[in-house]
Amino acid sequence: MLKVAVPNKGSLSAAASEMLKEAGYAQRSDPRELALHDAANDVEFFFLRPRDIAVYVGSGQLDVGITGRDLLLDSGAPAEEVLPLGFARSTFRYAARVGTATSPADFEGKRVATSYAGLVSAHLGELGVSAEVIRLDGAVETSVRLGLADAIADVVETGTTLRQAGLEVLGEPILRSEAVLARRVGAPGNPAVDQLVRRIQGVIIARQYVLMDYDVRAELVAEAVGITPGLESPTVSPLHDKGWVAVRAMVKSAETNRVMDELWELGARGILVTGIHACRL
Known about the structure:
Blueprint: E1 2-7, H1 13-22, E2 35-38, E3 43-48, H2 50-59, E4 64-68, H3 69-75, E5 79-84, E6 90-97, E7 111-114, H4 117-127, E8 132-135, H5 141-145, E9 151-156, H6 160-164, E10 167-177, E11 179-184, H7 191-208, E12 209-217, H8 221-227, E13 235-238, E14 244-252, H9 256-266, E15 269-275
Parallel strand pairs: 1-3, 1-4, 7-8, 7-9
Antiparallel strand pairs: 2-3, 4-11, 5-11, 6-9, 6-10, 12-14, 12-15, 13-14
Catalytic activity: 1-(5-phospho-beta-D-ribosyl)-ATP + diphosphate = 5-phospho-alpha-D-ribose 1-diphosphate + ATP
GO molecular function: ATP binding; ATP phosphoribosyltransferase activity; magnesium ion binding
Protein name: ATP phosphoribosyltransferase
């Protein structure tokens, strides 16, 4: 039986369960459930703290798990990223009082507070900067104001919270994170894991693309296909009227209206867009 770790709370939890549902797996209906046996797929799901998932997976007690890339790297566990999942994206950066530092090199001999001590220690080590890294569970912005630290490293979205604390972002991002599927380093091949990965890949692609159908005059097919090349090649079918053909192609959902406008200007008609629920490519 495949054993899978799923975040039990936080920004990763709902999105991870929704992706697994779309991939055809059962998920808990009661947030207090700690485990769920999906008999139809022969999978057991364990709902765990996101920060602990890499540790369970790295120990080999669970086959795979969904967690954040930042949490995976910070854990130091012998687990590795198998597949990026495209949600819970964030940027991890340094910040300090306005005018006190311009780059991580200015942290030499100083104190940096963070909830990701392993990740930050490794990053400073790569930069050759010797600094004391202080681990806190949250609200790290306050550590500078209270004199516990000289700078911080934290997830930054809009920067509003940092500005309110009198801090400014500096240097390049330490890490761009998102939810990932993780597995123990060196784990042997497992067909059930491969199937899980294929299903999730199908969900990711289905979320990014739509199916576009349209009719176009036969002499304009080459130009139309240039607008909608599809993943490999679009399907082109003859119509009863010999002068027209029907075309079907996958199009990135974010580009749908631009593509429809271009096809209309070319002379295509009957342009229809359909969502994709799942796929295997």
